């Protein structure tokens, strides 16, 4: 294996039917220049006499010509490996540029939902990043003054505002109204789930009792309608099975036997 790698890097097979030697040049300029060509019937002694000492040192016996198929396989293997690596690189580059698994980053203009603290349930936007645990936020729509919050108190949303770095409250308010964040948030599934959770938390015991009874009535009506449709479909299936095929002859009625 080592000899094949050495031949692949340092030499070139010149055995084509008329060449009896394998050239191994010491520089790239001599790799593609055959040193000597002769017929197979030539006398090796005459060849050695006609060559100089430098050329003799750069000749390899013809027994190494048997490694030519292995060298070709190595070249093919190298090409396949390089193409495979390039394909993987292109796939990873495409995923990194266009198919990023995370699209919600802590960045300027990112709208976040406050999940803890005195402003719980309100929306703010990140104005600046203080450190890896705190950010500077501003909530002009919810009347939240500019201040710092911990990242553990914020849940990042898919909305983002475009305004200059560390923009003033007036700039943030204008970007908020232009982006229609309140309308987009109210239409999102996240906001609808939050509202439903608030309604369930505000129910009294009697309200929960009425809700349970209403669900029972709804389930009974739904089950009755489902069974009715199922029964109707079964009748239609039986009628289709028992109905005679078009073009088929009806069986003749049996005549009563005479005694």
Describe the overall structure.
- The chain is of the alpha+beta class and 259 residues long.
- Among the domains are: 2-97, no CATH class; 110-187, Roll (SH3 type barrels).
- 48% of the residues lie in helices and 14% in strands.
- The chain contains nine helices and seven strands, in the order H-E-H-H-H-E-H-E-E-E-E-E-H-H-H-H.
- It has helices at 2-10, 28-31, 44-50, 53-57, 68-98, 169-179, 181-187, 189-201, 205-242; strands spanning 22-23, 59-60, 110-114, 123-129, 134-139, 144-150, 154-160.
- It has a five-stranded antiparallel sheet. The chain has a two-stranded antiparallel sheet with strand order 1-2.
- Strand 3 (110-114) and strand 4 (123-129) form a beta hairpin.
- Helix 1 crosses helix 5 (68-98).
- The longest helix has 38 residues, at 205-242.
- 9% of the residues are buried.
Q: How would you briefly describe this protein structure?
A:
The chain has 259 residues and is an alpha+beta fold. The protein has helices spanning 2-10, 28-31, 44-50, 53-57, 68-98, 169-179, 181-187, 189-201, 205-242; strands spanning 22-23, 59-60, 110-114, 123-129, 134-139, 144-150, 154-160.
The SSE order reads HEHHHEHEEEEEHHHH
Number of helices: 9
Strand order of the largest sheet: 6-5-4-3-7
* Biggest β-sheet strands, sense, barrel: 5 strands, antiparallel
Q: What is the structural class?
A: alpha+beta
> Into which percentage range does the β-strand content fall?
5-15%
Residues in helix, %:
40-55%
Radius of gyration: 43 Å
Shape: flat
């Amino acid at each position: 294996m080592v000899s094949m790698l050495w031949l692949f890097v340092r030499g070139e097979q010149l055995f084509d039917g008329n060449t009896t030697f394998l050239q191994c040049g010491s520089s790239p300029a001599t790799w593609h220049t055959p040193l000597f060509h002769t017929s197979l019937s030539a006398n090796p002694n005459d060849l050695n006499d006609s060559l100089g000492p430098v050329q003799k040192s750069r000749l390899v016996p013809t027994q190494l010509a048997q490694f030519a198929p292995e060298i070709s396989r190595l070249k093919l293997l190298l090409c396949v490996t390089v193409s495979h690596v390039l394909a993987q690189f292109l796939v990873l580059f495409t995923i990194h540029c266009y198919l990023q698994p995370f699209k919600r980053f802590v960045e300027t203009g990112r709208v976040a939902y406050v999940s803890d603290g005195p402003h719980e349930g309100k929306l703010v936007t990140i104005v600046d990043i203080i450190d890896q645990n705190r950010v500077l936020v501003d909530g002009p729509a919810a009347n939240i003054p500019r201040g710092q919050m911990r990242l553990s108190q914020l849940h990042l949303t898919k909305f983002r505002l475009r305004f200059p770095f560390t923009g003033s409250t007036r700039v943030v308010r204008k970007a908020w109204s232009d982006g229609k964040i309140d309308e987009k948030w109210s239409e999102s599934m996240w906001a609808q789930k939050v509202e439903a959770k608030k309604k369930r938390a505000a129910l009294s015991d009697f309200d929960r009792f009425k809700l349970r009874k209403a669900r029972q009535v709804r389930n009974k009506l739904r089950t009755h309608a489902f069974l009715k449709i199922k029964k109707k479909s079964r009748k239609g299936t039986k009628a289709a099975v028992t109905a005679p095929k078009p073009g088929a002859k009806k069986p003749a009625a049996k005549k009563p036997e005479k005694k």
